[in-house]
What we know:
Chain A has 558 residues and is an alpha/beta fold. Helix content of chain A is 32%, strand content 21%.
Amino acid sequence: xxxxxxxxxxxxxxxxxxxxxxxxxxxxxxxxxxxxxxxxxxxxxxxxxxxxxxxxxxxxxxxxxxxxxxxxxxxxxxxxxxxxxxxxxxxxxxxxxxxxxxxxxxxxxxxxxxxxxxxxxxxxxxxxxxxxxxxxxxxxxxxxxxxxxxxxxxxxxxxxxxxxxxxxxxxxxxxxxxxxxxxxxxxxxxxxxxxxxxxxxxxxxxxxxxxxxxxxxxxxxxxxxxxxxxxxxxxxxxxxxxxxxxxxxxxxxxxxxxxxxxxxxxxxxxxxxxxxxxxxxxxxxxxxxxxxxxxxxxxxxxxxxxxxxxxxxxxxxxxxxxxxxxxxxxxxxxxxxxxxxxxxxxxxxxxxxxxxxxxxxxxxxxxxxxxxxxxxxxxxxxxxxxxxxxxxxxxxxxxxxxxxxxxxxxxxxxxxxxxxxxxxxxxxxxxxxxxxxxxxxxxxxxxxxxxxxxxxxxxxxxxxxxxxxxxxxxxxxxxxxxxxxxxxxxxxxxxxxxxxxxxxxxxxxxxxxxxxxxxxxxxxxxxxxxxxxxxxxxxxxxxxxxxxxxxxxxxxxx
Amino acid sequence: xxxxxxxxxxxxxxxxxxxxxxxxxxxxxxxxxxxxxxxxxxxxxxxxxxxxxxxxxxxxxxxxxxxxxxxxxxxxxxxxxxxxxxxxxxxxxxxxxxxxxxxxxxxxxxxxxxxxxxxxxxxxxxxxxxxxxxxxxxxxxxxxxxxxxxxx
Lengths: 558, 152
């Protein structure tokens, strides 16, 4: 119960800081602290939504079963799953919150509680917050314009229109950049709010290229909101699409920007971040003067704020499943207390906002027939989220191997991609939801066993490096046609072993060449059919798919 | 848009400002080849030659480098050390580890340098400052050079 312990320490240290959250630990603490009318009226409210990945409609989204924390992050939220998660946050098994936040019994609970998200439902929640608190500030953590067939077809325009209608007041970015510099600039020029990125620099001149922060004045309180874009943009995604810019964590720059805001006498400093949870956790401990980090990128839904020193971290999940409401008690330039609620967007419970529903329909209308065309059916749960292969990934890898005639398939360990439950039709847009991107070419090549291992070691170090500043925030590359063992406690170069071809049981020979096919290469000029066409072709031939979880990865050190 | 370096340079070209360099840079990046005497020198030899075997303390030197290089061929780094007379920069994992020795004259307004260096592989970049009082201080930063991909 680290959050609770840390809260108590913080409360003791500052004697005045108090907090309330909708869940276990914080709820009990709330009962011990008197909430006066005065306090309630002095709140500054924030709405935070992040990593929507262009999901306009409600989705199934199974949270991870395996989400390993390394070194100090081991066992600490968000690296807690299933029953441990329920216990830590005092959530009853089988309850709506258990369904929203964990993976256990997912299919049965999905049938009980229905899909989650939908931007029309999000709009209802945002309007309700604004009705109660007109000065509330709505912030978007990025990964908004990418992830669906309509966003790909409109190059993000559908999401831009929806977020503008929602009344977002600032955003930061990650996958937005995969539309390329020109398109990003075109959209940003027309945005009614700032596109913040204190860590986005001009690559040639090494100087800030975007607005680092925006100062809001609401109800007599001045709030500085700093944007932090995904630091590893040019490494994790194709840098040739935005060669003009350099990113990075730039801790010193963050401190300088915080100091600049403090120098201007703001009452509150908020960081709207796409660093990922563990990177933000480390940054919160090293950069002084940030009151609140609204964290994104790693798709964690954490029901209680996590305190690092005097900084509060809020993690608001992904895919439109949650909106965080954060109410801060700010007096005389000091954060004295807060209330927080990770609001789950149950699509069958929350009434869709009529205006937003109409806008979403309008955005989908030109593509409706294409989107909803049924390609096949699934008899089993298809999911992705988790450190290693999910069943959606296995299906994609099967498709790649079959359609591209390759011994080995590689599929990126991205954390987006909603689930499908047994009995669901697989529509074209469902395939896009799991594969849509601007560099989806499915390549076919030859690789030696040694190269293959090098690739896997490299990706593994992006996840399991004990220093969060070296973690890029995705999951392990998904594989088809091979099995392997991984010891996450080993250093880079020694984590992966026992690479074996699953078809023959033959050990992968470092010196031998194998046919490998995959998608999402960051290299310019990658050739091949689009991955969604490859998957569609395979599913059409299969008709009804059935993919049970496979045991191709042997994990130690977790 | 506020005044940035590009604008400052444009202004400078128009005769509005002057730029003064702090000292000579013996950079690998700038020079076509290392002086013959430096070829084949190891990290240990570079340090021994620079410090004369004196003890090197941690702290007092700020080395800014990315955690993961966006492009291993041009990695931006900067070093500052108040009170430094000379700064040595080493790329410890490169075949020729010597990057630069920068000397600051007594009139130098600030004791800092910034450049871009090529890193062959994941390695530590080390900056050692010779202080005006003759003592030595250092900072170290691990820069990862990766093959990339798979960001989620």
